[in-house]
Amino acid sequence: MTTLLHIECSPRKQCSASLQVARLFIDRYLHHQPQTNIEIFNQRVTLLPEYATRTHNNKHAGLSGTPLTPAQQSAWNELKHLAAYLHRADLIVLSVPLWNFSIPYKLKHFIDLVSQKDILFSFDPQHGLRGLLKNKIAVGAYACGMDFSAQSATPAERFDFQKPYVAAWLEFIGISDVHELRVEKTILGEDIDRDSRLAASQQARDLADHLAATEADKTVIPASAN
């Protein structure tokens, strides 16, 4: 059975474009794959531990191979518990609004906590860094209020640190099958906002249809050769 993890990042709830498109994708996927197990990680209500001195010391102890103290091990277990959401998931959906050209601080906090050696990546001198999350699919539902087209005053190649950052992080932790849903120009008037959401919603339906069909193909049992 497929496990789908939805990481929610926006505090706007029903007004959130990223959340709207992500939920539409999930609903459509469930229509095709109703047996899917859904987990929701809402960063607005989940109390994340601070990246305190002991967490920082844990990181360097792990990199150097130094044994952890009981207190350090307890803090490390907290990080492993958070990362377990990602390890359990087969399909990861992130609804990410643009904040000051980048991602919400809650998502950055989560990424900083769980992106640790032997939790989401490994390292050795011969092979370097390797992501530990294999055979997973990620869908990023991104929303921004601006126009990032090449003709705009804020072209994506100069100002967009939202999608490229999330895409780089996903690749770093081992996820290569990554898909994008994007809602733009949400602050440029009601008509433009509505049209952008409608276009992204259709993309979400199409992507859900495709991924659900691909998952269905995996579960088909070949006919006997007898």
TrEMBL record:
- Reported EC number(s) for this entry are 1.6.5.-, 1.7.1.17
Q: Which cofactor does it need?
A: FMN
Where is each Flavodoxin-like fold domain found?
A: 3-205
Q: What class of enzyme is it?
A: oxidoreductase
> What binding details are noted for the cofactor?
Binds 1 FMN per subunit.
Q: Which residues bind FMN?
A: S10, S16, A17, S18
Subunit-structure text: Homodimer.
Q: What is this protein called?
A: FMN dependent NADH:quinone oxidoreductase
Species in which this protein is naturally found: Pseudomonas fluorescens
* Recorded name of the encoding gene: azoR_2
